[in-house]
Specification:
The chain is α/β, with parallel strands linked by helices. The protein folds into 3 domains: 79 residues, Orthogonal Bundle (Arc Repressor Mutant, subunit A), CATH 1.10.10; 94 residues, D-Maltodextrin-Binding Protein, domain 2, CATH 3.40.190; 105 residues, 3-Layer(aba) Sandwich (D-Maltodextrin-Binding Protein, domain 2), CATH 3.40.190.10. Helices cover 38% and strands 23% of the residues. Strands 3, 4, 5, 6, 11, 12 and 13 form a 7-stranded mixed β-sheet that branches. It has a two-stranded antiparallel sheet with strand order 1-2. The chain has a two-stranded parallel ribbon with strand order 7-10. The longest helix is centred in the N-terminal third of the chain and has 25 residues.
Length: 294
């Protein structure tokens, strides 16, 4: 009797969970929802326990299902590692990496880096999710994430990519209309464009250096930007007010004259971007190579 003739059923279970529905899992595996449903039923019968609660509207895992899913993902990762090790014996790295990154880094810093990485490693497939939501790396099956700011004690491994300098900017049109603030206190008389942090529901502070000391100042304005921090730059460029953003975002706009820097003497602060991953997951050769490259 073959010991692992049920691995197809295990793959069906893991795929349905990853994709969120029978229909999406069926598309991914080029089969039908009914075939996957029967596969999961066979697996549950073999294990003697229910893995998944299925209704007409949603799927949810049982406690046994969550535990089994974590172990099967680890097992499949080991199989993938073994295949990649054999495939990579000629020195060519191959495989797939899932990466989550914020809109700021995803649009302005990552493209140039991935272009060089892909030229060096053309057989590595990278699935990039550009979102401002902090994904759950383990539960959602991501290998890596690039995150902003000091990281909480989440148990993740973090490798800093850079400290990104910040600049305060406004459009020439806004400055002609409202004038130039000469001090941080003057900002209270101007239309500021605060970004509301999803984690706290409060405006992200603007970071300054004043008289050699670090100063955090909370912006206020009639327009608040939620969800996508790039919105503050777009509105500032349209003459709607003042914003603080990263040098790597506003540098080109300043060069072409659509934005100008304000209170440059109070600049010099930065925020860190870090690459994070789960410490207990076995990293594939492709993932390790991308980590080292970044």
């Amino acid at each position: 009797m073959r010991r692992f003739d049920h691995l197809g059923d295990v793959e069906a279970f893991a795929t349905v969970v990853e994709k969120g529905s029978m229909s999406a899992g069926a598309i991914a595996l080029s089969t039908t929802p009914s075939v996957l449903s029967r596969a999961i039923t066979r697996l549950e019968t073999r294990l003697g326990t229910q893995l998944m609660r299925r209704t007409t509207r949603r799927l949810s895992l049982t406690e046994a299902g969550r535990a089994y899913l974590e172990q099967t993902r680890a097992a499949f990762s080991l199989i993938e590692d073994a295949e990649r090790a054999i495939q990579g014996q000629d020195g060519q790295i191959s495989g797939r990496v899932r990466l989550s990154v914020s809109t700021t880094y995803g649009h302005y810093r990552l493209p140039e880096k991935l272009k060089r990485f892909s030229a060096a490693h053309p057989d590595v497939h990278i699935e990039v999710s550009i979102t401002n939501r902090n994904v759950d790396l383990v539960a959602e099956g991501y290998d890596l994430a690039i995150r902003l700011g000091p990281l909480p004690d989440s148990g993740l491994v973090a490798r800093k990519l850079e400290d990104a300098p910040l600049r305060l900017v406004a459009s020439p049109e806004y400055v002609r209309r409202a004038g130039v603030p000469l001090t941080i206190a003057d900002l209270a008389q101007h239309e500021c464009l605060p970004f509301i942090m999803p984690s706290t529901g409060r405006p992200a502070p603007w970071l300054f250096h004043v008289d050699g000391a670090e100063t955090d100042w909370t912006p206020d304005g009639t327009i608040e930007i939620h969800d996508d921090v790039l919105g503050v730059v777009s509105l500032a460029e349209a003459g709607m007010g003042i914003c603080q953003s990263y040098d790597f975002i506003v540098r080109e706009r300043i060069s072409r004259g659509s934005l100008i820097e304000i209170l440059a003497e109070a600049g010099g602060r930065s925020r860190p971007f870090s690459l994070v991953y789960a410490p207990h997951r076995r990293l594939s050769a492709a993932t390790r190579t991308l980590i080292d490259f970044l």
